[in-house]
């Protein structure tokens, strides 16, 4: 098999798998609507890519339901439980592609056994340990992957989380918007290959930065992880305006900065782009409408008609394609990254 | 002036400035005790280093008071306010060395004007914009810096935040422990020069990682920022167990990983160290008692007698010294990093 073929296939399957995710989640709609709890706090958690979908999904959930929501790595929950157990009415959303990630199971057990939390798991494996630990599970089997690096599983579980939030927030309009995502994804995949192809042709980049805020902060961090895992290059993720406060010291002529343009902070972001350009960075803007096209070196317009809470899964596609194409260009196989396995299980003080 | 002299002076002033921070904060004790609000939520925010002291301080506050606490960059507050305005009884702690950081002022104005929040500012400049915006300010003038990069201002404002948390949590024992910090700092500074001196002598490191959880996550991130700003090398910060989920792909024989050992997760951390060692990283453990000395290449024992919530400011000292000494070793002047200014003010759509 050619290098990167697994990853390429899984990226390109996203439109159809996203449809499956919407169907699978829709079938659990009645259970989601009639939970035996009125949550005062909702906690999303997972490790690696699932940590970043937790960050993004918690912002969406907060926006649609008004209920206090936060995302965290699971290790923080069982090592430092206090911030997560202030109320007695806790709803938790553990996220794990394999359904076997040790920390995610351990955090869920802590919540269920010691804090009487209600739990809904998100996974690609319905027969996993996670599925046995939670009250019920939303499983997207079509999102299972052969590649170590998550692509379609990340976006599909994120869409399942968005769909669940729309049900709990009784937001029909948002749900209708989610249904547009699969068709939009096809176009974004095509545009991503076009734009990233040009970047790779003039590839002198050895430092990558991804910037996003609100629901797109998790997307920026997931993008960072794609580049680190697949391309093994120095990559960072930040909230856009935070990047000015120190990290910009690292900019040189090998720096490529990707901004996920928000709806809320356009004027600040334009100001930021001007400064980053002056410092010598190459700029790539992923935006809804291309408003900042003239200020950037590369531009990809999503043209989704969706707000930043709904379009989040589309935004990560260009970074998935960057991971694939930059890796191949450097002779690295993105299907099986250095040092990594598909599932992380921890011993606890084992020799 | 020799390169790095400002930074060196400010690192070494920490024991005496920490005493000033405790005195200044103590003098505001009665005001802190008798706030005209019973907060249901406390929000800590700042940019750059102050973002990371916000993350650390919010964990301390949560632990000591039981009141829901979180840390965030200020841009998230005014661009995506919903997660921060769920309750009507909000206490906010804006943090800004200069007291003029645009985003921190803007977030404070949002809270005060639109959400009737009560605000206590933390700064080194009592006559600043921040001081005029908040209900009252805790100002540590001795923590003002000539260097662009924050060292003593970060730790002193963190100690002021810890002291405030101990007052609000009526935790006399924790307060007594904070009073031990200045004397402990002297020893940790000396040990840091010793240990970092050895590292620099065999410096083949071009990739630095800092790992810490709970109250030490903010410390790991601040350490990351010190290395980026001063040394301009590829540096990352993570929760310890999260580092396994992808980022470890970047480990090679030029990687130096610093772990801030916790009290809560020792067994997990020992397991982690074994794996990182097998992947070829060089390991530096900053711990209370040296339990993991045999598993690491470099070890610094704080021997403070303090728990992880109290000893957080001590932990960052080795990273400050790493920034200074690695920069000098590479011929970079840590007093005036590339691209950076001491104060960040933003235009908003200005040309």
Write the layout of secondary structure elements.
2 copies of one chain form a homodimer.
Chain A: H1 5-12, H2 14-27, H3 29-33, E1 41-45, H4 49-65, E2 68-72, H5 74-79, E3 90-96, H6 102-115, E4 118-123, H7 129-133, E5 136-139, H8 152-168, H9 172-178, H10 181-201, E6 207-211, H11 217-231, E7 234-238, E8 255-260, H12 266-278, E9 282-287, E10 298-301, H13 312-315, H14 317-329
Parallel strand pairs in A: 1-2, 1-3, 3-4, 4-5, 6-7, 6-8, 8-9, 9-10
Helix pairs in contact in A: 2-8, 2-10, 4-8, 4-11, 8-9, 10-14, 11-14
If you had to describe this structure to a student in words, what would you say it looks like?
The structure is a homodimer of 351-residue chains. By secondary structure, the first copy, chain A, is α/β, with parallel strands linked by helices. The first copy, chain A, folds into 2 domains: 5-178, Glucose-6-phosphate isomerase like protein, domain 1 (Rossmann fold, 3-Layer(aba) Sandwich), CATH 3.40.50; 181-329, Rossmann fold (3-Layer(aba) Sandwich), CATH 3.40.50. Chain A is built from 14 helices and 10 strands. The first copy, chain A, has helices at residues 5-12, 14-27, 29-33, 49-65, 74-79, 102-115, 129-133, 152-168, 172-178, 181-201, 217-231, 266-278, 312-315, 317-329, and strands at 41-45, 68-72, 90-96, 118-123, 136-139, 207-211, 234-238, 255-260, 282-287, 298-301. In chain A, the strands form 2 sheets. A 5-stranded parallel sheet of chain A has the order 2-1-3-4-5, with helices on both faces. In chain A, strands 7-6-8-9-10 form a 5-stranded parallel sheet, sandwiched between helices. Chain A starts with a helix and ends in a 22-residue tail after the last helix. The interface between A and B is large, with 64 and 64 residues.
